[in-house]
Structures are given as structure tokens and as C-alpha cells.
Specification:
With 108 residues, this protein is an all-beta fold. The protein is built from no helices and ten strands. A two-stranded antiparallel sheet has the order 1-2. Strands 3-4 form a two-stranded antiparallel ribbon.
Length: 108
């Protein structure tokens, strides 16, 4: 079995679980936090890994997750639902309606 790593022989590596849009995704990385402030105050530090609050992403929760915009507020916007399928989400999380549609949700 030479050439295969032993399960307990991986020193210096930590399995980090990063919350991405409410889903846990495993990655291998070094410890990135020691307190909540290391997680941009938008997540919790557990065993050296940031677990981001809903709407936040990144190794230290310092960016918006998919379909969330305008860090640090990270406003939810999904073009199919928030904009009724008649617009797109802007960088601030608002809808930019297609021609012929209006209103905050492009449903007028």
C-alpha cells in the first residue's frame, strides 16, 4: 500500500466546511479563523473554519453567496423569482426590468 496516504498521517491539513448558499461543501485548507470577527462578523468560527450565515460566502464570509448582492448587506435576488423572470438582478440586488415590464419585481 505504498503511495497511499494514511488517514491519520495528514498533519497540518484541516477539512474545512464552507457554507455556500445553505449547502455545506468540503474543502481542504489551513485554519482561517480563531474568532467570529475573523469571519467578517457574518459567520461563526468553528475549529478554525468559518461557517457563513445565509447569504454570505467565502473563506472568511467576506462576500455575498450566489443570488445575493451588495456586500455587506447581501440582499437576496434571483432573476427567475425576485424579478418574475422579466428582468435581471443588479449589483445592488434590485431588479432591472426587461422592456415592457416595471415595478420592484418586474411584475407590472
Amino acid at each position: 500500500m505504498s503511495g497511499y496516504p494514511r488517514i491519520f498521517g495528514w498533519i497540518g491539513l484541516v477539512v474545512v466546511l464552507i457554507v455556500v448558499g445553505g449547502v455545506l461543501a468540503p474543502e481542504t485548507a489551513a485554519a482561517v479563523c480563531t474568532s467570529q470577527t475573523d469571519c467578517s462578523v457574518h459567520g461563526s468560527c468553528v475549529n478554525g473554519a468559518c461557517f457563513c450565515d445565509n447569504g454570505f460566502a467565502g473563506e472568511t464570509c467576506n462576500q455575498c453567496a450566489a443570488n445575493f448582492f451588495n456586500f455587506p448587506s447581501c440582499t437576496s435576488c434571483n432573476a427567475a423569482t425576485t424579478c418574475s423572470g422579466h428582468g435581471s438582478c443588479t449589483a445592488t440586488g434590485a431588479c432591472a426590468c426587461h422592456t415592457g415590464f416595471a415595478g420592484p419585481g418586474c411584475n407590472q
